[in-house]
Design goal:
about 230 residues, mainly beta, OB fold (Dihydrolipoamide Acetyltransferase, E2P), Jelly Rolls
Length: about 230
């Protein structure tokens, strides 16, 4: 375990209090079995008093951090505007015309994408094309999907099929989405295939507050996935 500090608190989708740690991990505020809620966590003043306090993080692993750095170096990854690191690996030579995108696009594109604990979530955004996530290593990864109307879901990218994880996640064009490491995950390397192919002209970052109001059940997660103003 490594020493870190408490950066803040939030409530998850089921109302449980979770501590946000400076290392990028999160810890649920329950004692070990019988998993009783720690009494002080419901008091705003006591929560505020614990921000900055030093704690042990059982999820921190220097080897995992080194692995993320190795992936960045060996795969030639660079920072992405939505956070995380990426490298384009494929852009189809075939060009498609007559699209609602407003201009021709490559038939398909593909990238590597890495999320590491230093920035454990991406910012909410949407594309004008369909996208597919493909799991490679690390994780699992929680993907928030905000669709038409009030349709919303969290799907988990990973290989534990019995637990509901899937090695692919399809994201329809126009869906607001972002991804974050599941509790205890140090990094996640995955692939993103876009068709018609990706172009930054088709990429839109969300402001955030209007989505939190529209999807209140996911407001806490949306807050973590919203780019700070400025």
């Amino acid at each position: 375990m490594a020493r870190t500090s408490i950066a803040g608190f939030h409530q998850d989708e089921v109302g449980d209090w979770v501590a946000d740690l400076a290392c990028g991990h999160r810890q649920h505020m329950r004692h070990r079995p019988p998993w009783q809620l720690r009494a002080w966590v419901t008091d705003p003043e006591q929560r505020a008093a614990r921000i900055g306090a030093a704690v042990e993080c059982p999820s921190c692993d220097a080897g995992a951090t080194a692995r993320a750095r190795e992936l960045i170096e060996r795969l030639g990854l660079r920072p992405h505007p939505e956070r995380g690191f990426y490298a384009e690996t494929y852009r189809a030579g075939l060009t498609v015309d007559g699209l609602p995108h407003g201009a021709p696009r490559a038939a398909s594109t593909a990238i590597y994408f890495l999320i590491a604990r230093e920035a454990p979530s991406t910012y909410l955004h949407r594309l004008r094309s369909d996208e597919i996530f493909h799991f490679y290593e690390g994780g699992p990864l929680d993907v928030l999907l905000l669709g038409p109307g009030d349709a919303a879901a969290v799907r988990r990218l990973g290989t534990d099929l019995a637990a509901g994880e899937r090695p692919q996640i399809v994201i329809a064009a126009g869906t607001w989405f972002a991804a974050e490491l599941a509790d205890g995950a140090a990094h996640c390397l995955f692939g993103c295939t876009v068709a018609p192919g990706f172009d930054f002209a088709d990429f839109e970052l969300a402001a955030g507050p209007e989505l939190a109001a529209r999807y209140p059940a996911h407001a806490a997660r949306i807050g973590r996935m919203t780019r700070p103003p400025g």
